[in-house]
Structure formats: structure tokens, C-alpha cells
């Protein structure tokens, strides 16, 4: 079955973890609408290709399983790596990867400059601000669940 650009094709090791997680949540889900959503997800995972809607449903399951450590605990390091590879190809994972690349590009402008100070501040649950001062320029980076992004640039 050909894969269209908005669809996500699952590799075998990703399918195994995705299917097990979706089935585990399905077995305890009480809301009939959510159970229907999960049933569609399970069918799509078994087929090996997800629509954007199914990818969004799976994304939430994979993200939670990775953050909670459930995936590593149940499927080991190999299962965790498969889930991470899959997550990076899902919409939010792809967005987070893009924000990290943009921040890396901004930081590369500091190459060769003298660092005056670096400070990391906790600004909320899972949210941090990284402040870097170099040769009279200041960068503030925001790091949180939405990714990494340049918050401000000053001189």
C-alpha cells in the first residue's frame, strides 16, 4: 500500500510497541467515543499505516508512555528506541525536532565568541529558560514540552 505524504508508515518494531500500547489503553478505556477512536487506531497500526487523525491519537499514547517510562519498562531499551524513532516522525515530535534545529542554528551564531555567563532557570513544571551572555549579546531560550525556542535576543 503506497504511503501518501500525510500518512505515517510504521516500521515493524514501531508497530509492535504502538499496537501493544493502543491495546493496553483500549482495555481500560471507559468512554465509548475514545474506545472507538482507539479501535480505529488499532486497526490502522495492524495495517501499518496511519492517517493524520490516527497519528494524532497514537502520538498522545507514545508521548505519555515515553514520559512516564512505561515504554522502556515494558519493552526495554529497544522498544523505547523504536517508540522514540516513531515519535520523531509524528506531528508533535517532528515539530519539536524542528524547534531544536532552529535553536541550534541560533546558538551557532555564538561560535567563537567568549561566553560571559550561562544560567538555567526553572520557570514552571517542565519549563526552563536558558540564558546565555556572550561578548555583549544575550540570548534567552525557552525549553518546555512544546520544544526549544529562542525567546529573546538582546545586545
Mind explaining what this structure looks like?
This protein is of the alpha+beta class and 155 residues long. It has 2 domains: 8-89, no CATH class; 106-154, no CATH class. 57% of the residues lie in helices and 25% in strands. It has 5 helices and 6 strands. The strands form 2 sheets. The protein has a 4-stranded antiparallel beta sheet. Strands 1-2 form a two-stranded antiparallel sheet. Strand 4 and strand 5 (137-144) form a beta hairpin. Helix 3 runs antiparallel to helix 4. The longest helix has 20 residues, at 70-89. The radius of gyration is 19 Å and the shape is elongated. The mean pLDDT is 91.
Question: What is the straight-line distance between the termini?
Answer: 54 Å
Q: H/E series, N to C?
A: EHHEHHHEEEE
Low-confidence stretches: none
How many helices in DSSP terms? 5
What spatial order of strands do you see in the largest sheet?
3-4-5-6
Q: What's the pLDDT, averaged over the residues?
A: 91
Beta-strand percentage range: 15-25%
* Computed structural class: alpha+beta
How many separate structural domains?
Answer: 2
Shape: elongated
The biggest beta sheet is recorded as: 4 strands, antiparallel
Helix/strand layout:
Blueprint: E1 8-9, H1 12-28, H2 32-47, E2 49-50, H3 52-68, H4 70-89, H5 91-108, E3 115-124, E4 127-134, E5 137-144, E6 147-154
Antiparallel strand pairs: 1-2, 3-4, 4-5, 5-6
Helix pairs in contact: 1-2, 1-3, 1-4, 2-3, 3-4, 4-5
Amino acid at each position: 500500500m503506497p504511503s501518501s505524504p500525510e500518512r505515517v508508515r510504521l516500521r515493524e518494531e514501531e508497530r509492535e510497541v504502538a499496537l501493544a500500547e493502543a491495546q493496553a489503553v483500549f482495555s481500560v478505556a471507559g468512554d465509548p467515543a475514545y474506545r472507538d477512536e482507539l479501535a480505529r487506531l488499532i486497526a490502522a497500526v495492524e495495517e501499518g499505516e496511519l492517517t493524520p487523525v490516527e497519528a494524532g491519537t497514537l502520538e498522545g499514547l507514545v508521548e505519555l508512555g515515553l514520559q512516564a517510562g512505561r515504554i522502556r519498562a515494558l519493552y526495554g531499551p529497544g522498544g523505547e528506541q523504536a517508540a522514540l524513532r516513531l515519535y520523531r516522525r509524528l506531528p508533535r515530535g517532528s515539530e519539536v525536532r524542528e524547534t531544536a534545529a532552529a535553536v541550534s542554528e541560533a546558538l551557532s551564531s555564538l561560535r567563537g565568541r567568549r561566553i560571559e555567563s550561562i544560567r538555567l532557570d526553572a520557570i514552571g513544571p517542565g519549563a526552563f529558560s536558558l540564558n546565555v551572555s556572550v561578548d555583549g549579546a544575550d540570548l534567552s531560550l525557552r525549553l518546555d514540552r512544546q520544544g526549544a525556542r529562542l525567546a529573546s535576543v538582546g545586545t
